[in-house]
Design a protein that fits this description.
five-stranded mixed sheet
Amino acid sequence: MNEIHFRLDLNLLRVLVSIAREGQLNRAAAALNITPSAVSHALKRLRDHFQDPLFERDRQRMRPTALCEKMLPEMQDLLARMSHLLERSQEFQPGQTQRTFRIGLPEAVEAELFPQLYRQLIAIAPHCRIESIAIPHAQLPDYLLHRQADVAIDVALPLRSPIQQRPLSQESFVVIRRERDKQRLTREDYLTARHIAVSSRARGTVLEDYLLRELGVERNLVVRVQSYQTAGNLAANSDALLTLPETIADRLVTQFPLRKWPVPLPIASTRLQVYWHDAHRADPGTQWLLEQISKR
């Protein structure tokens, strides 16, 4: 097998793993930065080689066949080890690198951290490209393993090895409400008020409510939106309260007629962690990126 065929075979495996991860040919093509027709052609070659359909359509998703499910773990491990081997052989020079760094960031964290990180990274590596991407919590290990993201910054999550993590920052929650409501915010006020929740997910409990439930408290959530910018506008024009990390609150009170108050309950602070995959621990580019994030 010559070198050209070897590369092609590895690319076919990357296509198979990407289809399994994304569940759709178009999404797999976007993740690999190739055309959907190229993915379809690669899948045909894989099916011919293995004499198996490999994927079967289930409504809007491509589901792996039994044979594909059996092969996937070893293929994923092979690709990760090949990536690791190539990374070790490459010298990383921040001033010359044209590498694209992808950082997983929730929307709220992106607004506060990404501008600062961009300025910091581009000052040292002026030719690199930096992308912020949203990663569903359940898919974070796969994104990090397959280099769809080099690192991720998110709230504390129950993830274990081979996902590595370390603390980045800790911050208190506060409450903001419209400026004209200037009376003191009591525990009773908080418990009887209407509340706004912020989450980019379609459903599921937000972090503040997990922490409040540890205190035996349930809020009266009346609205759920995708961004703190929208939530701040709502809070300024209604009687609803918005509970959020203090740095985000500080930004919103300069943009809207809002006032900041301490949460009148002993709610725990929110913690941010930085995450990476152990398979890429020897990659000098990833290590440089982690060092820069730690310096912020």
